[in-house]
Amino acid sequence: MLSVLPLSLTVLLYVSTNALVAPLEGLSERRTIQLNRRSPPSERSVEDWGAWAKHHKEVLEAKYGGGSSQQQKRGSGTNLLVNQGADSSYFGTIAIGTPPVAFDVVLDTGSADLWVADTSCVTGCTGVPTFNPSSSSTFTNQSSSFQITYGSGQAAGSLGSDLVQMAGFSVSNQVFGVCDEVSDGLLTSPVSGLLGLAFETIATSKATPFWQTLVAQGAWDEPLMGFYLTRFNNVSSVQSLEPGGSFIMGSTDTSLYTGNIDFVDLPVTGSYWILPLSTLTVQGTSISIASGSSSYAAIDTGTTLVGGPSDVIAEIYAQIPGSQAGSGNYQGYYTYPCDTSVQVSVSFGNGSSWSISPSDFQLSKLTQNTCLGAFFQLSTGSSAPNWIFGDTFLKNVYSVFRYNPASVGFAQLSSTAIKQNGVAGSLPSATIGSAATVSATSKGLSLLNVPKSSFTAMGICWILSVLAGTVLLY
User: Which residues form a coiled coil (predicted)?
Assistant: First the structure.
């Protein structure tokens, strides 16, 4: 019998955003970003999967304030780890500075800070492209320390501000972390940092996120972001880098979905992208779900799997004959017979029901007959939602994150989108333009100068104001 451990998958979704796509003609502010998907280059042993599973369970619990009392709650910082050895992750590009330099970053709806590795980085940055503040004529040192704590490490440095560009949009004086200390394994080339897409209230830096500045100042045609993620899970010929889909700011790509987008309002606004989980069906059996805040689920592009309360996860696998709870590194995870096609569907609020492909429910084949499930037991903090829905779910829908009214919407994938699953192709490259099509301003005012250690405690007072900027449409 295999020992299986809780899968706290916070494998970061790395969305590919063509930094500074060439300006479109006219005034339509819609920008499409290609996504890269990183996949395991070779098969892993049962032991390797176990180590990965244990590591990522701890990471996700740290991200959402669960686990031991030493782990920080999410409100004190962003907690993410990149693991290239388990399931796939998605990354994209932004451009920083003058002249602009492109960097691959994690694009994560479960966090709200932007940070990149600095050229003076002394640990954890070997082989990783780094940002050189002295090479940018528009960089300003904010003279403030910055630190993000993760379940098994951290990134630390200082806060700075500079011109940041993505997909033809730009924000001048965007505040971000410039990190010279990164825990080993936190970054793997070519990824240089993280771009958070959640709300300002959960940002460690207290800076207004890049996306929020743009949407609040009317830089987009529509106040929303759209994601499409490809599937290469369990594809035998998968390469370490594969085409990953697209991320769109300010609009949606109608070629990638059919029908209407089914929006559900956020029950709680201003922090994570949260929806109430209303139904969960496994193998045709309805699973009992708690109501109220106990049903809240974070829709997190920066997480690979689906984590939830232990009693509900156990009930899910009780519907799958031959499933077994894991132990050791696999504690909190479950295995099941590989010849079983697991049918799972979920709905949020009063919205539609969405199916999760059996291919996504099957995280990995541990032996010829034993597979590892993608739903795992997760313990989050008191201020974090009980459920985390990551890429295991999001690969099955076209997802839209709408600022106003605050909501998350899903739509059925089109045949065009589905045909891209498992199909190798050329990878998109970063495109940097000489001029931004939209310009907004994010100013950090009266930033306090405090030591790095202070950032591990809650209650640091940061004051960041977004000054009204001129929106220029070309």
Answer: none
